[in-house]
Amino acid sequence: MKKYKFSIDDNDYAVEVKNVEDRTIELEVNGIAYTVNIDKEVKQTKTPTLLRSVAIPTTDHGTAIKVAAKTGSIKSPLPGTIIELFVKEGDKVSIGQKVLMLEAMKMENNIESDKAGTVVEIKISKGDAVMEGDILIVIGE
């Protein structure tokens, strides 16, 4: 479980806690096993597990922006800063094509198109700060 090194009156001790259960602790001191009973229960702390759904840029057919029939939009999967655009208005894009790079939490994230079509509108510029869910690029048929 946990290992400790102690020095008492110039004597060194290597202590390894093997098991903690209620008021009983099993440990090893310099290779010798001991079972220790203490006067109050030891609460074990557990590291919480962070569960977060995967954020994926999606095409949104229900946006208020109706640029052309069957348009979709690529939204920001997380807050960050636009550091590079790889397409311009009028470019044809395919599914999986890298359209921009977003810096978030000091990491560069490639944002890919999940819709094939033509870039109808680019709503951001290099250096813009964006929030999660902001529309970045509108794609039409």
Task: Give the topology.
Blueprint: E1 2-8, E2 11-21, E3 24-29, E4 32-37, E5 72-75, E6 80-85, E7 92-93, E8 98-104, E9 107-112, E10 117-122, E11 129-130, E12 135-140
Antiparallel strand pairs: 1-2, 2-3, 3-4, 5-12, 6-8, 6-11, 7-10, 8-9, 10-12
> What is the terminal separation in angstroms?
59 Å
Taken from the alpha-carbon principal axes, the silhouette is: rod-shaped
SSE string: EEEEEEEEEEEE
The helix tally amounts to 0
- Please summarize the sheet with the most strands: 4 strands, antiparallel
Strands ordered across the widest β-sheet: 1-2-3-4
The total count of strands amounts to: 12
The chain-level mean pLDDT equals: 82
Low-confidence stretches: 61-69
Strand content: over 45%
Instruction: Please estimate the helix content.
Output: under 10%
Kindly provide the radius of gyration, computed on alpha-carbon positions and rounded to a whole number of angstroms.
Answer: 28 Å
Q: Please state the structural category.
A: mainly beta
Describe the 3D structure:
This protein has no helices and twelve strands. Mean pLDDT is 82; it is low at 61-69. The chain is mainly beta. 0% of the residues lie in helices and 49% in strands. It has a four-stranded antiparallel sheet with strand order 1-2-3-4, with no helix packed on it. A hairpin with a 2-residue loop joins strand 3 and strand 4 (32-37). It has strands spanning 2-8, 11-21, 24-29, 32-37, 72-75, 80-85, 92-93, 98-104, 107-112, 117-122, 129-130, 135-140.
